[in-house]
Amino acid sequence: MSEGLSKIAPFLTSLYVAKFLNPELFGKYSLIAVTYEIVFILVSFNIQATTRIDFFKEDWEKFCEIKKHHLVISLFIFVLLSLVLWGVLDLNFLVVLCLLVSSLLRTLSIFILAVFQCMKKVNSYIVINATFVLILSGTTFLLVNLGYSYYSWLYAMLFASLFQAVISLKFFGILKFISSFGYRMSSLNLAQAKLTFVAASLFLPQSVGWWLRAGADRYSITINIGDYILGQYSLSYQLASILVIFVNVLNLAIVPNINTFLKNKQQDRVDVLIRNGVYAVVAVTLFIAVAGSFTIKSYYINEYPLSQELFVLLLLSFVPQAFMMLIINELYFKNLGLFVAKIVLLVFLSQAIVNYCLSILTGVYGMIYSSILFNILLLLLIHNKRQKVKETKYCGA
Questions:
Q1: Domain parsing of the chain, residue ranges
Q2: Rounded CA gap, 367 and 345, in Å?
Q3: C-alpha separations of 24 from 168, 212, 234, 367 in Å
Q4: Which of 87, 287, 304, 312 is deepest in the core (most CB within 10 A)?
Q5: What is the pTM of this model?
Q6: For residues 335 and 51, what is the distance between their CA atoms, to the nearest angstrom?
Q7: What is the rounded CA–CA span in Å between residue 98 and residue 32?
């Protein structure tokens, strides 16, 4: 429930903001949001995903050692991105500062949240997560109404991330955190740092890939087509992407069961679980199609006249992606993370290049049709690999 709220709240906030900003400004708003997500994923470097694995595979002392190195890697990436964004690209100082600092603060928070999740400290997890969501949404609403325009969400994110980091440390215990994960440069172990880096990087193509693709498409649109179309596209994307939000939440519920069944070699029960997930995706897709169309026609059609048609096409592009998100969990459990990383990275890079060219030649419609085809291709590749290894013996993760 808490995770569902944390994922749906930004979606609802964006719909609210869209009513206050014209399409050009809303396009810039969405561009900042997707840029933040990319920076955050790079800085956090999948610390929440690896924490949920390492916590159960290692004893507490070894777990702390691994996470110390991971936090140092995140800090190194933070410094490296600072040099690139300020020194090389020479971007706006305040904007980059908000992007980087809020990302680093949230890295600390999501790490503690992942530990709480593994420890089954449900109440602490819910309070920290819900507080962050409420502050982010409430501050965004306030700043939009105060006239901060498309920067409202970014400033709100900095404030919410700071508050979340403070309350996370308070719940965990500052002294306990320092004693468990405090780091001295003299204790740097390059071999451990390399192992930690490799383990986390296997998740990177999938985690950052979705946002890189979304970011690449939006930058292609704003460069080659214009901010007005970007605003139309962004509103439609927000409505259609609730399907992906649904699958993310669904995965949180079913992944522990999938891993348990796989560990016990109950493949038939895994198949039933995934099949039921597919049925759920189809049902939710139909509901989103009706509800999204109604929402656009009732509240946005005058300011965003192209969003209705774009919404339907974008929703179709998300369906194969949703199916793939269900079956990909099995490949990770069967130690095929490297295959997933390679295939996702290859497909997404190809799509980004093709879509940039199409943004010049065919406009936004050609880009969306291309996305549908690339998502179908990725689904077929992942499904084919799953079929080949389904009966193969493997070592449980």
A1: 1-201, 202-397
A2: 18
A3: 37, 21, 10, 19
A4: 304
A5: 0.77
A6: 17
A7: 11
